[in-house]
Amino acid sequence: MSASLIHAVHSDFIQRFGYEPMLVRAPGRVNLIGEHTDYNDGFVLPAAVDKEMIFAVGLNGGTEIRLVAHDLNETFELGSPAEVTPSDTQWANYLLGVVAQLQLREVDIQGFDCVFGGNVPLGAGMSSSAALECGLAFALNHMLGAGLDKMELAHAAQKAEHTYAGVMCGIMDQFASLFGRDGHVVRLDCRSLEYEYFPFDTKATRIVLCNSGVKHSLASSEYNTRREECERGVAVLQQHYPAVQSLRDATLEQLEAHRAELGDVVFRRCSYVVKENLRVEAACQHLEAGDLTAFGQEMYGSHAGLRDDYEVSCEELDVLVEAARAVPGVFGARMMGGGFGGCTINLVAPERVEEFIASVSAVYKEKFGLELETYQTTIVSGVGAVPATTAA
Ligand code: GAF
């Protein structure tokens, strides 16, 4: 937890509004494996990490909603919760979407003030948007005594993203931000919403993220297209196998049997998802057995599928994964998140981290002329209140 960030957000709130707020921390996430599986009812293996958003929130006794993006020094105001509607201010939409979703859940939203700031890199595939949504949802739920449980908050935050940001995301990011556990990764079954925590041994490996620094503009439109392609695949399979409700239920044999009917693109998208679910299962077994080499192979397999069949990677990410593969002590690497830019996630032996960063940065600089930003992340607990004393 960054004490200076908490202090800055807290002071900003006091200066602007002159009363004591509640403080909330909402982390971004990494995902070890299981990409684009969440909206297909499949499996994911994320963790909340020490890149986070800090919120200062207070009920102002009136009807006004006053939002402040501390890092941008921008404000957004609304006369009353009844006026909530998508705006042209993108960052505000994540918060307004949450207000709208809580109202749909019969939470009586009152006027409030909110200042937020953070160090989750934007557009890096680390779910800065989910952190924004979940932090405010948690704060309002607490302050208004609404009594929604964490899973309901995750759903509300996910829906906020659908309706106010236009991205038809799955549940992974919001779940990870809310349910993260210190030192553990969590496997989520995105259909049943059952989850299991696995200890993550940082003595054996570190999680290092390499931020490509690019975000190709296709990202959100292609994301929704992938989702539609998967749904088309399910519609074809359902005609032959009524039990197939989502790609979670499909097998490679079924896809193969109807390859021509699916068409090449939909076939490859669906095959990727079915294989990725199998990889998550295998990866969890390797994790339990402490076999990081085998775990890493699943990560490389995941990247190859995302690159060749799901087609959500890009040259920058592919170069970073190949550069990582060449460094001794790297167990596995792959692109992370929705794709078309953002970060790669790398599992690296602790004693090799420095060499890894130097080597991959040099390759990236030579190939693209870009300075590579890297983050060594620590796995932390999910969204929670920050004791007021931390702000002092
Ligand atoms: C984005 C989405 F928000 C997630 O729901 C998930 O689908 C991910 O892309 C890809 O695995 O982060």
UniProtKB/TrEMBL annotation:
Catalyzes the transfer of the gamma-phosphate of ATP to D-galactose to form alpha-D-galactose-1-phosphate (Gal-1-P). Its EC number is 2.7.1.6. The gene is galK. This is Galactokinase. It catalyses: alpha-D-galactose + ATP = alpha-D-galactose 1-phosphate + ADP + H(+). The record marks R29 as: Transition state stabilizer. It is found in: Cytoplasm. HAMAP family: Galactokinase. Pfam families: GalKase_gal_bdg, GHMP_kinases_C, GHMP_kinases_N. Residues 93-181 form the GHMP kinase N-terminal domain. It comes from Hymenobacter arizonensis. ATP binds at G123, A124, G125, M126, S127, S128, S129. Residues 12-58 form the Galactokinase N-terminal domain. The keyword Nucleotide-binding applies. GO terms for cellular component: cytosol. It is an enzyme of class 2 (transferase). Substrate binds at E35, H36, T37, D38, Y223. Pathway: Carbohydrate metabolism; galactose metabolism. The keyword Nuclease does not apply. SUPFAM superfamilies: GHMP Kinase, C-terminal domain, Ribosomal protein S5 domain 2-like.
